[in-house]
Give the backbone structure.
Amino acid sequence: MRKLSVFGVLLLVLATMSIASAQSARTTTLQMKAVEGSKVTGTAVLTESGNGVMVSVKLSGFDPNTKHDGHIHTGTCEAQGGVVVPLNAITADASGAGSADTTETTMTFAQVADGKHYVQYHASSNPPGKQVSCANIPAATAGQGGGGTTTAPAAPAAGIGGLSQDGGSPLALLAGLLVVMIGAGTGYRLVRKSAK
Ligand SMILES: [Cu+2]
């Protein structure tokens, strides 16, 4: 019986660990709005990545085959400030759609998601020209990000992105299941032994 409870504790620890790892990467999904008469809309997904933040932007409504600079600025779309983080340029395809991922390492997720920054893409590249799409980054609540929508927006881009982001949880679940099975097996043997 003593061994059984050890397995029980182990199981609890494992379950807690898998929940913690699922919550550790904070994320928030922004709706990029068309501004200044443009038709450029889409999403910007910010995901905590170590001490940095990964910014994945998907936009459509550009003129076909055009290139567009993007930035994280201080302020809000309504009260705009300077550039603090240059984002990788988006090159629109023949349909006017495109995406760009930027791994930002000079600012943490908490610093970017403090309610005083926004994501913006522009009409052209080098120079960027006027803004065409904008989204405010909401302040992240302590300990948690925007919710569990990390994988959904990234999925259509490429299988790799979806896989790497999904990878953690099912593995932890599998490990948990294994511990349950081993624990149950040992418990069964223990019960049989003590019954003799
Ligand atoms: Cu800008």
Summary: Helices lie at 2-24, 109-112, 151-154, 159-166, 168-195. Confidence is low (pLDDT under 50) at residues 144-169. The domain at 27-137 is CATH 2.60.40.200 (Immunoglobulin-like).
